Amino acid sequence: MSVKQKRFAWLIIIVIVSTLGVFGFASGRKAVSSTLVVLDARERSYTDSRRVDPPPHLAAPQEGKPAGQRSQVRVEQLTLWQTGFKPAEITRPSGPLALIVVNNTRVRDISLQLNRETGNRLREVHLPAGKREWREYIDLAPGRYVITEGSHPDWTCRLNITPR
């Protein structure tokens, strides 16, 4: 093999290794920034890797249950995009629910409202610039509810809470 052929071979090897390194770095960065959310198809409930602290009455051991066993709390994640909430409608049985709303819009300050469909406001939360998530445990009675963003009335998510 001549010197010219060896140089060409080394150049090809360096280009291939560099390309693989760039792709490996880019895919690694994406994996670090993403969040694992697993969907249980039987109950359509989310198991989320992010921490949501339960309220004290759910964290404490309950009568008749071993100390390490807790009530099952469903986690529902809504994502707010520039086109509105995804999913746009959720149906859940009554009971404790960990609600997570993630702001993926470019709107810096948003105001979220949780209302009964009849108009009674239950919660209002302001997310200032830099805060992208609202997390709260709620225990809603059966009925129909709406989550809206104050400045964009067309951004809505309907919550249908059914009796157990």
Mean pLDDT figure: 76
- Number of self-contained structural domains: 2
Structural class: alpha+beta
What can be said about the biggest beta sheet? Answer: 5 strands, mixed
For the largest sheet, list the strands in their spatial order.
5-11-10-7-8
Beta fraction: 35-45%
State the distance separating the first and last CA atoms.
78 Å
Structure overview:
It contains two helices and eleven strands. Strands 5-11-10-7-8 form a five-stranded mixed β-sheet, with no helix packed on it. The chain has a four-stranded mixed β-sheet with strand order 4-3-6-9, with no helix packed on it. Strands 1-2 form a two-stranded antiparallel sheet. Strand 3 and strand 4 form a beta hairpin. It is of the alpha+beta class and 164 residues long. The protein starts with a helix and ends with a strand. The chain has two domains: 34 residues; 112 residues, Sandwich (Immunoglobulin-like). About 15% of the residues have low confidence. 21% of the residues lie in helices and 45% in strands.
Concise account of the structure shown:
The chain is built from 2 helices and 11 strands.
List keywords for this structure.
single chain, 4-stranded mixed β-sheet, 2 domains, 164 residues, Immunoglobulin-like, 5-stranded mixed β-sheet, elongated, alpha+beta, 45% strand, 2 helices
Helix and strand arrangement:
Elements: H1 3-33, E1 37-40, E2 45-48, H2 56-59, E3 74-81, E4 84-86, E5 89-93, E6 95-103, E7 110-116, E8 121-127, E9 133-140, E10 143-149, E11 152-162
Parallel strand pairs: 3-6, 5-11
Antiparallel strand pairs: 1-2, 3-4, 6-9, 7-8, 7-10, 10-11
